[in-house]
Amino acid sequence: MDLGIRGKKGLVCAASKGLGRACAEALAEAGVDLVVNARGAEALEATAQEIAARHGVAVTPVAADITTGEGRAAVLEALGGQADILVNNAGGPPPGTWTDWSREDFIKAIDANMLTAIALMQALVPGMMERGWGRVVNITSQSVRSPIAVLGLSNTARAGLTGFVAGMSRQVAPHGVVVNNLLPGIHATDRAVSLDSGVAKAEGIGLDEARRRREATIPTRSYGRPEDFGAACAFLCSQQARFMVGQNILLDGGALNVSV
């Protein structure tokens, strides 16, 4: 399927690896020129070169902490102040217990997983509205639909972003701008390794056993593949997604049994 976005310009955050890189790859395959961001300069530069060589598009790396004003300013400068596509993504805060989290822990989580995405939308969506076309995909988590106790910091921040998008997406839709959230379950990324390592340590089992136990809870009996997630993101950025507005789309292998 031709997604109809060849020649568009996009920003993908946290794009050096994992789900962010998968989204960048899929958009580049569809012909989108990209600015990609992550904190690690070496890995990001390598990712940008590989994607550009593979797909024949322009890929500009900007190594910066997107959760800071300085980082966002650097990314916006590389974009020339405008983009057609925005993929918001940031690593989730660490797991823990509700009694252990301080106010500072919550502020850090909200800043990274809620306020940063909002700031980028506020910076880029007005231009999309003026031009009459735009796509925003916020990568959140399945925990938005079914909160996970040990991920309380993530639950809190991502639920706030979900509430913001529920209103904002309907306000910008008349101007040709489509905003949706993509909710990953467990995928085969470093994040999964981190979570499984925590379980392995807590329960005194091996990492492989921790993964097997988690996979057994997923109807597909496997973790998601990053490339499938990237393809879903690219579709949400396509011309064909124009009628999908303000949705929270699960990609979790059926792990959550929800009817609405």
From TrEMBL:
It comes from Paracoccus denitrificans (strain Pd 1222). Gene3D superfamilies: NAD(P)-binding Rossmann-like Domain (3.40.50.720). The lineage of its organism: Bacteria, Pseudomonadati, Pseudomonadota, Alphaproteobacteria, Rhodobacterales. This is Short-chain dehydrogenase/reductase SDR. It comes from the Bacteria. Pfam families: adh_short_C2. Coiled coil: none annotated. CDD domains: BKR_like_SDR_like. Belongs to the short-chain dehydrogenases/reductases (SDR) family.
